Amino acid sequence: MNGKVCLVTGANTGIGYATAVGLAERGATVVMLCRDAARGATAVRDAQQATGNPHVELLLCDLASLESIRQAATDFQARHGALHVLINNASVIPRQREVTVDGLERQFAVNHLAYFLLTNLLLDVVKASAPARIINVSSQVHSSGVVDFADLQAERSYRPTQVYANSKLMNVLFTFELARRLVGTGVTVNCLHPGVVDTNLGRDYSGLPRSVPRGGLSWAEGARTSLYLATAPEVKDVTGRYFRGEAEARPSATAQDEKLARRLWDVSTELAYVRRNS
User: Fold this and answer.
1) What residues make up the domain containing 170?
2) How many independent structural domains does the chain possess?
3) Higher model confidence: residue 56 or residue 203?
4) pLDDT band at residue 215 using 50, 70 and 90 as cut-offs
């Protein structure tokens, strides 16, 4: 991975941090996208010290803000002329419904729309860096997700685990649709289930206090599939697939619905681009 530039979202803790460390260990230049400046700076310093790689840097971004995502994409391209690996990893699961500065339900905004917008804003530099890889961290709970276009913002009913499953289904639909659109560009797009990992997100999902260990895989174990898809030569040409561990897995039937994926793309475009100017 020497000479490769990688961007990981949600990188100050959990799977994102372990993924960033794994890439840095392999010699990549790693950009850790984080919301909090202090925690992000600590994570960058820890990653540099753990790996001996000085080419680890912080990119500030609040993924719950469309304007912040736009600024982060601009800031990244001002620093780097290439992006070989983009890993959309960050997710949230508030116990109560929350609304972002853009008037969007927070899980939908961070877990799906941020993946969609950040990727599209960086797509030209990714394509110019081909061969390149885009990796979206989803979950096995996507199989119980639904896409209800009449209630995308969960205004009628907010059950945190169901809304999370819905967003993880959107990750898979987005992955497959983007892969179809990028055929022939040298850019691959895949998604994955990282396993049941002991992270703050996992505790939020279980309704446990963050101070209480949930059990499950370590951060490093949770990052294994992301790192495999980002670096393994045997998957350099594999695209539009869903992985568990180092093997392809079958996603839900809904996740393979091309018509649904295209409609979600169009609605996401409306929310990310058109609504902003209305």
Assistant:
1) 5-277
2) 1
3) 56
4) low
Least confident of 43-57, 121-135, 136-150, 185-199: 185-199
Residue 203 has pLDDT above 80, yes or no: no
- Residue pair 35/61 in contact (Cβ under 8 Å)? The answer is yes
CATH code, domain carrying 176: 3.40.50.720
**pLDDT for residue 165 is more than 80:** yes
pTM over 0.90: yes
Give 54's contacts (C-beta < 8 A, 6+ positions apart): 48
Write down the catalytic residue from 17, 115, 164, 242.
164
Per the annotation, the verdict on 273 as an active-site residue is: no
